[in-house]
Design goal:
153 residues, mainly alpha, 62% helix, elongated
Length: 153
């Protein structure tokens, strides 16, 4: 008889949240069965698959990438204990290429923002050169003569 577990036990054994496991299910990566009460039930294969999914996501692959692994049957055994799947390298290299493009776009954006910041800072600095204060009376000094004039009349 195969071991069955509910989502909380699977989450604990995988080291993932129940929310993550439900997300994996929504993405088509896990397919639990349902017991008579409607609770999700998982078997040992789901445990292995969930651990593999978590590991692949942790190295930077997306759920879409992991779906390719599932389609090729590459998630049913622990990744470290099985020969690597055909096409795994292609998936990884495509993800690396995508990340390289994103990094390049972000670097370009950062460079534009840094140039803009330098322009703004220079404009602000040129306006804030200290000027010699003008000699003027304080408001209290101006009001006193008026008060004296009023007393004198």
């Amino acid at each position: 008889m195969t071991m069955r577990m509910r989502i909380g036990e699977l989450a604990e054994r995988v080291g993932a949240s129940t929310r993550s496991l439900r997300y994996y299910e929504q993405q088509g990566l896990l397919s639990p069965t349902r017991d008579s009460n409607g609770y999700r039930e998982y078997d040992e294969t789901a445990l292995v698959r969930a651990r593999n999914i978590k590991e692949l996501l942790a190295v930077g692959l997306t759920t879409e990438d992991v779906l390719h692994y599932l389609e090729r049957g590459c998630l049913e055994q622990p990744l470290a204990q099985t020969p690597r799947c055909a096409g795994e390298s292609d998936t990884i290299h495509k993800r690396l290429e995508s990340l390289d493009h994103r990094i390049a776009r972000l670097q370009e954006l950062r460079d534009r923002l840094a140039r803009h910041s330098a322009t703004v800072d220079a404009a602000v600095d040129s306006r804030q050169t200290p000027k010699a204060p003008k000699a003027r009376e304080t408001p209290k000094a101006r009001k006193e003569p008026k008060a004296r004039r009023a007393r004198e009349t």
